[in-house]
């Protein structure tokens, strides 16, 4: 496809065989026909195929439009009239005895067709496409008919181009042009015996000529193929392929050597990394069960005199295969330094023991905070937007290091005492998928990442952040349904864009940060400054709940 400045705009892989004709319909639709026996209607802007018409038994040679109708002709000797709005077949016109090569419309009254037998037929559209006239003005196959300056023109293999008269004087003027050609006006679908005999003789002659031409074409094709695949070309091609194979063998040998060296180096790095992130079990004291789920148990503990959280995976037993992967991911997490990333001090990674992470202690998660607010006082808007903005800062930091979170939800956002969110379980989603065969299907996970073995991307994190923002604005209620309850139109548009089904339509996290900064600034203007604006969130061990 090209624009009006002759610049290439794109290509549509339309058909499985030769495309014989194109036409524009209604200014914005493209119609194509092909030797694959189909006709297709395309949207020129989206390059989308709206529907396919199939009715010809051989290749479709030519098409033309008339208002909401489409006429097509083909190698099956037939003309089919279609209704474009519904894609239904209106009529099948039969009367040609050879390939129908071209059709056109004259004054919205007549449909004119021609074929390889030199026959030209005029069909009356207002009479339900009744055949009105036919003639053989040319002495050989007619390739094309067209209307220009209110006149019909035709061209033929006999080397002639004929300008036809108006159809009102069609029979008389054709007879004057060539006295040897009989023009027959058809009434009630009957033909004179003499005309029918002449037509049959002409058809037989043209069929013999077509068979001869076909044999000539096949012979020429075979000759060209033999010349193209000559012995010299084959020999040169074999020599080139031999050289390529030799180069590939050398390259493969070098790659195997490089992989072996890399494997040895990685094994050494894995041993060193394990020593850096491993924490002995006897260094952890005062275990106290704090929470548990089907996946893990969370303990409050003490390590080196500091309060920490010990998260132990129930089924993540360390083996020779999985241990290096777990330790590597913990090492990557430990190397990260950002206020919105929860620090991990190390892990318990002893062979044949469940994996356990040693994390910085926080009073609770975002889910705990919103759950408590549901039964007491709702969080201020500025606090909600501030939490979402801090989470966006953390994601931006991860994405800048080519990392993704992959499992962002309220339970994976820990909250400090001064309501600063910190992302946890960084880099763990891949290990949980690989070694625990866990599927992530919550409403906070992007649709394209809910299948087992899915690849997690930055666009998936943006989707989760959009759902998290909606969840906060609704005070922890369902994120399903429309957004009519969100009063600000700009915020609705933000959430719709972040949670778009197509990941390509979601913005990068840098845009999300900018949007949330502006949203927070507006929220701060509308928030009355009071002691309630700065909320403190603590965990009371005595009563076992979270308090403002």
TrEMBL record:
<keyword id="KW-0808">Transferase</keyword>
<dbReference type="InterPro" id="IPR011009">
    <property type="entry name" value="Kinase-like_dom_sf"/>
</dbReference>
<keyword id="KW-0853">WD repeat</keyword>
<feature type="coiled-coil region">
    <location>
        <begin position="196"/>
        <end position="276"/>
    </location>
</feature>
<dbReference type="GO" id="GO:0004672">
    <property type="term" value="F:protein kinase activity"/>
</dbReference>
<dbReference type="InterPro" id="IPR000719">
    <property type="entry name" value="Prot_kinase_dom"/>
</dbReference>
<dbReference type="InterPro" id="IPR050349">
    <property type="entry name" value="WD_LIS1/nudF_dynein_reg"/>
</dbReference>
<dbReference type="InterPro" id="IPR001245">
    <property type="entry name" value="Ser-Thr/Tyr_kinase_cat_dom"/>
</dbReference>
<protein>
    <submittedName>
        <fullName>Myosin heavy chain kinase</fullName>
    </submittedName>
</protein>
<keyword id="KW-0175">Coiled coil</keyword>
<dbReference type="InterPro" id="IPR001680">
    <property type="entry name" value="WD40_rpt"/>
</dbReference>
<keyword id="KW-0418">Kinase</keyword>
<feature type="repeat" description="WD">
    <location>
        <begin position="12"/>
        <end position="52"/>
    </location>
</feature>
<dbReference type="Pfam" id="PF07714">
    <property type="entry name" value="PK_Tyr_Ser-Thr"/>
</dbReference>
<dbReference type="InterPro" id="IPR036322">
    <property type="entry name" value="WD40_repeat_dom_sf"/>
</dbReference>
<dbReference type="InterPro" id="IPR019775">
    <property type="entry name" value="WD40_repeat_CS"/>
</dbReference>
<keyword id="KW-0677">Repeat</keyword>
<dbReference type="Pfam" id="PF00400">
    <property type="entry name" value="WD40"/>
</dbReference>
<feature type="domain" description="Protein kinase">
    <location>
        <begin position="284"/>
        <end position="522"/>
    </location>
</feature>
<feature type="repeat" description="WD">
    <location>
        <begin position="53"/>
        <end position="92"/>
    </location>
</feature>
<dbReference type="GO" id="GO:0005524">
    <property type="term" value="F:ATP binding"/>
</dbReference>
<dbReference type="InterPro" id="IPR015943">
    <property type="entry name" value="WD40/YVTN_repeat-like_dom_sf"/>
</dbReference>
